[in-house]
Amino acid sequence: MHVLILGGTTEARQLAGLLHGTPGLTLTSSLAGRVAGPRLPPGEVRVGGFGGAEGMAAWLRAHAVHLLIDATHPFAGTISFHAASAAASAHVPLLALRRPGWVPVEGDVWHEAGSLEEAARLLPRLGRRVFLTTGRMGLATFADLDELWFLVRSVDAPEPPYPARMEILLDRGPFDLDGERELLRRHRVDVVVTKDSGGTATAPKLTAAREAGLPVIVVRRPPAPEGVPVATDPEAAARWVAERH
Asked: What is the DSSP secondary-structure string of 157-208?
């Protein structure tokens, strides 16, 4: 049985670790290639796109894939719809491994935004020193906010356009609470911007912001394909594979 994992997330690597070495199972993980030095999962790894839904369907057929697991980032967006279309076209069962979103608790001061553009419109009335943790790909959205100062954290260095008043912090999670508290204090952050990525690796910033009474702009997840079964953790996804192996 050949299993293809569309990965790049912590959950994808964990799932690959659970499945790797299973007798009679061939495992391939596919990475988008947007990070310069990705953490590689066990098993075979391919890097790069497929050429849309049709290209992915052709790859599934050419490599005799029996099961497809979409374990991409919740904000990858387009790839999930390509996976749903390709799986239907190639008649390959599809499972989405999607970490649950974050839920506000008492004391949180959250402002929901439907997009990065909406987040940028909200920012000027919420603060002046911004901890921006939405990744390097969408910085152009904030480039015109010259009156604000940004601390931008990302795995790889961003490319312009980006905000003129900006400090770049190259780092990769998981992050701990003490470190996030110190970061907010040292940089005198008064507002945080994040995507609703879910999971525990980057959640401590939310706790640190709550303790400091800081507003947090949370960008909602984009729509996901309907009708695709969902597992919320790698163990459940591994059981799904085992039931079909």
From this structure: ---SS--SSEEEEE--S---HHHHHHHHHHTT--EEEEE---SSSSTHHHHH
